[in-house]
Amino acid sequence: MTKTYEAVDKYSDGRTIAFVLLPHFSLIAFSSAIEPLRIANQYLGREYYKWKTYSLDGNSVQSSGGVEISVQSSVKDLVDDDITLVCTGVDVETIPLDPELGKRLRRLNAEGRTFGSLCTGAYILARYNLLSGRRCTIHWENMRSLQEEFPDIEVNAGLYSIDRNCITCAGGMASLDMMLRLIAIQHSAALAHEVAEYALYQDSRSGENLQRHDAEARTGISNNKILDAVRIMDMHIEDPLSCQQLAMTVNLSPRQLERLFRRHFDCTPGQYYLRMRLENARDLLRRTSRPVLDVAIACGFASTSHFTKCFRERYGCTPTEERNSYQWGRENRQSALMSHSSASLAELRARSELALKQKFAHA
User: pLDDT, tens digit, for every residue of 279-288?
Assistant: First the structure.
């Protein structure tokens, strides 16, 4: 399996990648970043890539799926790794900013070292003011809330971004795509291809590939006029167009557009548009702490009262009630994960103790 691949960058002795795992990190994003490095080492016949795992306090970290991962050190030891990646997942907005991590990341950036994030980690980098004036990527579910909270950051909908010494990816299998790109840059496209083939990954994707399926795949509709209208609606959440304006952009009359929407969605264009804006508003309520009025304006509502009326009709509660109930549910989910993990550890301990007793009983 070993082949001759020479590193084309200045790090001929190899590179060290630091993975900073924060609570509820995405396991698929983390493992999809490590595996291509391991496979590359197999082809290189040496440990060109080495990696270390860190947590805020040096203790193990629980993933979003409840899997507990042991780490090698705390962020206090984060000093001279060549690449540092912050790995997060769900509920990233609830993670308190750790001053030590911020200090270490700023120092690495000042030294010109590469840093970045996996999955939703760009939100953490933004809160540390490390993404101002940069291009970045985050999981599509968190994209709009990041844009609203940090308008000076260029957030794109691609799988990953490489902007100077900052690399960010959307998580999931996009971690694999980004690492394959780094392997191609640091070694060769041939090695990246070998790694992808070994991982049974048929088509490596570029950073410009969109994260989400197109509107046709998501709606199951192939009518181009409707698909164009849906795309335009999504582009104008904050400044909604009238039905007449929408119809003009797709070269239809308002009556023709309404007939198409009734046939395919069983509602009017206005009703579909309102539902889309309310879904975006609910997401902002859940993921940000912005005032209800700001959320309303960001989703095209002129007043809080009108927004609240529409929201209650759609979801059966006020925007404030929705935010409070989601936060309460999130706390319960986190407690359940902690309880599950503690129960699993207790069970393991009990089994170990039983095995020891049986061993000594037979001795």
Answer: 999 999 998 8
CA distance 347 to 345: 5
Average per-residue pLDDT in the chain? 88
Q: Does domain 215-316 have CATH number 3.40.50.720?
A: no
pLDDT at 212: 79
Return the structure tokens found at 143.
């994209």
**Domain chopping of the chain, boundaries:** 15-198, 215-316
Please give the Cα distance from 35 to 123 (Å, whole number). Answer: 24
3-state helix/strand/coil string of 100-161: HHHHHHHHHHHCCCEEEEECCCHHHHHHCCCCCCCEEECCHHHHHHHHHHCCCCEEECECEE
Class of CATH domain 15-198: alpha beta
DSSP-based three-state secondary structure for 166? strand
Q: Has residue 356 got a pLDDT over 90?
A: no
